[in-house]
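User: I'm putting together a teaching handout on how sequence relates to shape, and I'd like one worked example. Could you take Adenylate kinase isoenzyme 6 homolog from Caenorhabditis brenneri, show the sequence you're using, and then write out its predicted structure as tokens right after it?

Assistant: Happy to. First the sequence, then the structure tokens directly below it.
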Amino acid sequence: MATPETRRKPNILITGSPGTGKSTLGQQVADRLGFEFIEVSKEVRENNLQGEFDEQYNCHVLDEDKLLDHISERMDSENGGMVVDYHGCDLFPERWFDVVAVLRCSTEKLYDRLQARGYTEFKIKENVECEIFGSLLEEAKESYR
Ligand SMILES: Nc1ncnc2c1ncn2[C@@H]1O[C@H](COP(=O)(O)OP(=O)(O)O)[C@@H](O)[C@H]1O
């Protein structure tokens, strides 16, 4: 099982509220470095890693155990060189990452981006509030002191 000391190339986690630009940046970073990009939402859709249906959010929740099992071989590899995009970081074992970036975005821009994505007012408000409070940055600081 690789650790930051034994991995050949670093693993990078890109977190932040939905709409801050994680998948855009993650793909660019992976392309430039020749790393593999795991966009978690896409990985979940393509590999049937959903859990139960959530009525309030009108979508399936993620089955976290299934996701972790699904990517653990690549994340624990001695090679490293993985870029992962997910909105939080406390789901993952700390040993998986050498670099954690938290993307931020102005609330005006975030609002417009989430509206353009067709999110409900409820979901937009919740995500914009999360951005105002800097919740995901705090989560990352707690996990990776
Ligand atoms: N640096 C940027 N400048 C302007 N627009 C951006 C930037 N990064 C992403 N976007 C746009 O913002 C929207 C959300 O980006 P996306 O990468 O899908 O965010 P996330 O993966 O965090 O949900 C997309 O329409 C994307 O084109």
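A couple of points you could highlight for students: The chain has one domain: 12-143. The pocket of adenosine-5'-diphosphate is lined by residues 16, 18-24, 85, 113 (CB under 6 Å).
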